[in-house]
Amino acid sequence: MSEVQDESIRAEVVAAPPAAPVAPVAPATPAVDPAATAFDNIMSAIKIMADPLGLAGLTVELKESMSKIVLAAQSAPATLPVVVTAETQRLSMLLVKHQMDNLKVFPDISTKITEILAAVSKGDTTALLGSSQSLLSLAPATTAAPVGDIATALITNILANPLLLAQIKQMNDVTDQLNAALAASEITKYNENMKKLTSALFPLLAVKQ
Amino acid sequence: MRFTTTDSFLLYNIIMILETCERVTDVVSLCGGGIPAVFYATGILYSMHKSGKLLQTVDGVQILNKSLLITASSGGTIPLLILQCVLNNNLHNSRDDWFEHYIIKYIDMIQPINMAQLYIASLLKSMCVYMGISSEIVRICNDTINKIITDVIPPEISNGNPLFFKNDTCSQIRYNYVVDSTFNDSPMVSNDFTHLNGVNLVTQVSEIITTCCIAISFSYLKNGTLNDAALLVDNDILSLDSYVNLKNIYYYSLTAYDAKTNNSYREPNLFSLSNYADRSSRIYNYRAINNLRQYASIKTESGHPMKFNLITFPNKYDPILKYNNKIYKDLVPNIFYQNDFPEIMTFLGIFNGDSRMLSLMFLIGAFETMNVHETSGEVADKLTDTLPTSYKQTLADPYSVYFKQDPLSVFGRILFKKF
Description:
The complex is a heterodimer of chains A (209) and B (419). Chain A is mainly alpha-helical. Chain A has helices spanning 7-13, 34-50, 56-75, 80-103, 106-122, 125-136, 147-160, 162-183, 187-208. Chain A starts with 6 loop residues before the first helix and ends with a helix. By secondary structure, chain B is α/β, with parallel strands linked by helices. Chain B has one domain. Helix content of chain B is 49%, strand content 9%. In chain B, the strands form two sheets. Chain B has a six-stranded mixed beta sheet. At the A-B interface, helix 1, helix 2, helix 3, helix 4 and helix 5 of A face helix 5, helix 6, helix 8, helix 9 and helix 15 of B.
């Protein structure tokens, strides 16, 4: 095939998509902005892909980033490289965060474990049972054993094993730091905390075995 | 009849192409599947290297085994591309541990966050191209992509000689991609990169990776076509008829595939967040698998023996103890790759995002390749001798590595172990 496929090469030759034929309109009607139409088309295309994956929030952020980049290109071209780099980094962190959020694992489990730890420290068995059941209800209905039984077993395990309790707390702290790093778009901190989280989880599995 | 210089050159090229085609006996197709596929394919190539199938020595110099055609789509492209760059710059003759030094060490640097940055930079670039705004922004996006790529390839490669692409059917290394064109009624796959001849190596690598590995790209914005050839590759694009001496097709997939039912297995996983209908839609490559299987069968029946080897991800429904290590003893009887991770994590290749999980993918790719080539246990054990320590640690406890990151799953397994 001889057709040019390279996007960077194509960038030099591709003009804005022609606007669809527009019927004559009254002079007061604003002109159709081809770039704006193309932008709407892009957003629609991305939305089709992103929404089923739970990435709807990302399209809003993408629109905001694109606006910043276009503005920088028009008003302060010298800052363009910095703006593109910063927006790329911000969006990529958001992409990872959106995926984490959509898992409904890290944020939810973090909250539930906090509640469990608080209940344990207060000796509040009722709250402990409630939080544990709530934690386990995150699992789908295919759970084989009754949730109450599992919650009871979980409480028993946690209370009977101070080491496990400490490790859960450590994991919880690290998960919070991980989420904070994601929210602040700090890649280095994210990587550091991901490593810490992994380290915290290994002993948990060692307890299991 | 008189031949001109041009005629002679063309004739020479034709002879060379035919010779290459005649030499090829084995086709290896590396699959896609995000970052896990990058590591899976790296393990496959490493295994081939360690078992002496990847290279051959001609006049004291090691070259890519002439009997091989290696093709890759999506994630599988990345290790193959680095391998080609290593060979092209003769780095494989520079040190004994060239594979570990120039490929594994740098593949290890590819983590989900790098991939996310690459996706976003590529998407911003595609948006600017589509909207026809500011070629300067496109140039800066290209610079950003090039910088991301430069950080994960050896300096010997980024400063090395560029690749030269030929538009013939008998190249030994091919990267598949979906053609960006509104002139085709349906998505077309190509492996022609001749338009990249003459640009520097980093730009070549960046363009190939963004063209082959980024599903949402210009073509998606323009006409809704997903830019991922892993969904479409079959014998049409492989041009198998050109290889008159072809004997083996090694087709890798990260999915579990059942030849009897021609479908995927289903298991409502305790912690699965997606239903089966969503998951089954990920099994895109059945058509390609069936076409290849049928092709090999027809060839064999017509007196040209050809074996189609489908290498899928090992799973609990067929837990064969291929090697006496913990991957096959402890892990495989408990896993089903498609269901163990939710869709959202596998999209963009971001799942269980740390290096130990990815090194596990590498090891499974390596051992499955050893197995399909009937490599003995003793030889397979030697595979790990030269691997980085982290890989050996992964091999020592693969079960924990596979299930470690999702805290809810961890809790579930702690509990169920107690029952």
